Amino acid sequence: MEYAALSDLLFIPRVKPEETLDRELELYSPNVRSVAGLLHDGSHRKLTASGPDDIDSLRWVQDEHAIQALQDGEVEVRISHVLLDSFNIQNSLRDGETPTFGREAVGFITRLNCENQSLEIGQRVLTIVPNAFKTHICQRDSLVRPVPTVLPSDFAVSIASTFATAWHALHNAGQFVKGDYVLIDAAAQNFGQAVIQLVQMFEGRPLVSVSSEGEKKMLMDKYNIPEDGILGMPGSFTARDLAAQTDGRGVDIIIGSSSGVALRHLSTCLAEGGRFVDICRHAMATDLDPTFFKRNASFSSVNLDTLAQDRVFNLVDTVFQLEQLIGVAEHHTTKTYSVADIGKALSAAQSDEKNCSIIVSFDEGAIVPLMPALPPKLTLSSDSSYILSGGLGALGLSIADSLITHGARHIVFLSRSGASSLRQKAALKDFNERGCTIETIQCDVTDAVQVELAAQSCKMSGWKVKGIIQCAMVLQDSIFENMTYERWCATVNPKVKGTWNLHSLFPLDLDFFIVLSSMSGVIGNAGQANYCAGNTYEDSLAHYRRNIGLAGTSLDVGLVTDASHFDKGSTFNSTSEEYLKKYKHWNSAQVTNGELQIVLAAVMRGTSYPNGKPFVPQLLVGITDDIQRGDEPGWSQDRKFDHRVSQIVVNAHPNSDEVSTGQKMRSARTANEAALAVEEALKTNIAVAITAQPNDIDVGKPLFTFGIDSLKAIEVRNWIFAELQADISVFDVLSQTPISDLAFIIVERSSLISDEVKRAADSAVVSDGWA
């Protein structure tokens, strides 16, 4: 039994969860789940897809780029409306990263860092970007345009690119002049209607192709196009038919969206010197009529996605300046969806209905799937120096890499032998190339004289040391009875003398002083009495530093399963899987290098997220909250781990002769009989979790009195759902409801129970006041 005495009080050790750090690790895991929340909660977010071809995987994540300071000539726009681009929906969903199915956006300027006199805070503007599904967009001031006050936002965002493309196709590529005959392919679609309006606006003569009677009637009603000016799909009319419609001259301009055979047919209808403008992005010149170019005709393709941005915005300027633009609104059909219904908007944009612009509105009250915000990014001082003692080993180089990633530009390694291996030299070269100055001081940290010289060297060089990480370790494993004094000292001294020397001889005003201890000092490890002793000393020194007001944290690191000491030919000469099969006691105390780096960054940051409280001086890194207590003796039986033991142990004492709880529930003839079976199952599992006997569990008490917290409640609820087939909430588990009454609630909701017994259980629940 372990205990500590202080001021006439006895203390017993218990490993308690550091819930904020557990949550931080969860936030960085690939399995973190989204939560429903307000999109406009003050954060800067962007839409991402967690998997390809999966609309349901869309969620909003923190946009770190958007919160950075604006560069010269930049503005920030808070987005209010985005136009869906149906052409890019499938392509962007396949990416599995950031969707690009929205390019045009309207919003309001929230920040300015430019001298553009036409822009001001609060002004409504339009911009075009590769991915507009963000709450805020940072853009060059030359790539935003004030929206005319007479245009509603949904109309402005829907016509910008459509009419800019139509203008470019008609006037620039098509070289339109007054009186030209213009054949518009698939004219009922949004783009086709935009071309019709521009042709009529500038006194041209539109001819249109449609695919249905409904489209024909719509165009006749909207644009007063005569019936003989409306054609079927390509192939249903001939050049001779068009000659009759055009006083024998043929069509001057064709705006086409066809390919293959349909394209060849269309190209035969072009007049001498005519212009064919393709907007479908799939047309091939080889599909044109063989006589096409002999008629002095031209073929061009229009795609605003590949046009220089400045030219695109010049086209937008032209469109916004059209005097007749207000009249266009009468014919332009839009449908607006809330950003909360983006799935419905995407489905609508992919439907066969192409004559309606689909707009997504970022309305204020929209509830969307949000990825929880990440903690503030650690930013280390580029002007300070950071000491890594023993940092050229398996984990030290990974830590150095993380320091550089977080802004460190001067790292000092203290090492007995310096960088001797090819791996070490390659790593240091990489660090230098990334802009970090690397110093390697040959120093045995167990020697106070050498450490003092290293500290003086730092001071004389003008290096401002702001952080120390102690990684030094030596393994000399042996059964304690056979361990020599030399072996003992070889392992203990780097941990004891080395850590004390760093503490006492380097500056005290550090941002962090972190020692990489080991979980073995807490759980024990056969043949490592010396190593365990050194680790517990480091833990105590961290507590001591914190008690005297200095920075100090000891990380008791579990088995790092992806560290280089599991590489072939390295320290353990086996894979982590092989090692864990042999040394099963590490199964509940393992961690990955990535998880360790997250913990290190949090400790260097100094406070937990989001409550901003300092971390405790000793952290166990990698111990699971699902420790299984079997019949074999070992560290898991130690009472200090009671709060990390699995609170629900299914079939804790399996016996083939025993009848399962589910079978008892199915065969129950009364509600009391079924509830008793549930009650016994709950008592058995709780007893195993707290190393007690089932008869010791008072069913008159609620579950939370036996250590079921908010995290464990989820596990309890899942077990009840899976084993007892009853759907209860986490709130039921955490409520004041005694176990005896909770058993009736489970019976009433279980699919294992007959309706007759359920009704009896329901009556029992209601009579006790727990309905």
Automatic annotation (TrEMBL):
Xref: Gene3D superfamilies:
ACP-like, Medium-chain alcohol dehydrogenases, catalytic domain, NAD(P)-binding Rossmann-like Domain
Is Repeat there in the keyword field? no
Which Pfam families does the UniProt record give? ACP_SdgA_C (PF23297), KR (PF08659)
Query: GO molecular function, one example?
Result: phosphopantetheine binding
A biological process from GO: fatty acid biosynthetic process
Domain Carrier: where? 667-750
Q: Which residues form a coiled coil?
A: none
Matching entries from SMART domains are given as: PKS_ER (SM00829), PKS_KR (SM00822), PKS_PP (SM00823)
What keywords were assigned to this record? Multifunctional enzyme, Oxidoreductase, Phosphopantetheine, Phosphoprotein
Q: Which PANTHER family match?
A: ASPERFURANONE POLYKETIDE SYNTHASE AFOG-RELATED, FATTY ACID SYNTHASE
Put simply, this protein is called: Reducing polyketide synthase hmp8
What species does this protein belong to?
Colletotrichum liriopes
Q: What is the lineage of its organism?
A: Eukaryota, Fungi, Dikarya, Ascomycota, Pezizomycotina
